[in-house]
Automatic annotation (TrEMBL):
InterPro entries reported for this sequence: Peptidase_C15, Peptidase_C15-like, Peptidase_C15-like_sf
Similarity section: Belongs to the peptidase C15 family.
Lineage top rank: taxon: Eukaryota
Encoding gene (name): PGPEP1
Single annotated GO MF: pyroglutamyl-peptidase activity
Pfam families: Peptidase_C15
Protein name per the record: Pyroglutamyl-peptidase 1
Keywords attached to this entry: Cytoplasm, Hydrolase, Protease, Thiol protease
GO biological process: proteolysis
UniProt GO cellular component terms: cytosol
Amino acid sequence: MNENICNEIPIIYITGFGPFGKHSENASQKVVEKLALLNIDSDLKVKLETDILDVAYKPVLEKIPNKWKTSKPKLVIHIGVSELAENIVLEKQSFNNDYCQPDINSCCVQSKQCLIGFPETLQTQLDLEGAIKDLENNEKFHLKCSVSTNPGRFLCGFVYYLSLSVSQKRSLFIHVPVLSIVHEDQDVAAYTLASTVGYLNKNIIQSS
């Protein structure tokens, strides 16, 4: 895909995930829904598009590459929930292989591979360390952020790898904690993510 962004109004595309397993309410869905209510569009002069994805390989495999092709987004951020996360986690990379866990439809990836013929690991080229430093300098955000190199080998890693395969310069995955941790801080989490989106948007403009 051509890295040139030709939209008159740049599109920022943000996704969360729906329910799965014991997560009858997915924290990523709650945060994305709150994020959609903020004034990112007018503040950043972009068009914000959001989706809640099913936790299923086939629909994601069909939807995400098509979204890149049709909308040509300036920035894509996927958000998911992690039981291991105690704060907001920016994922540095994702993996192509070993997707063995069944999805909500009891389906697996036939080859256990995201994309045949692609590298084992792809990394985002977005400035994650700079984004975290920018948040640390803003006193109104009390939710800590960190960088991880392991998004897991389920739908989180799967969707991230799909987007990284299209553009490492414009893709990111963010893990949020489970609702029991983030419940009272959903608004703060949404504002924190909005600030991160703003920083990365500026980062892309400066590097283009």
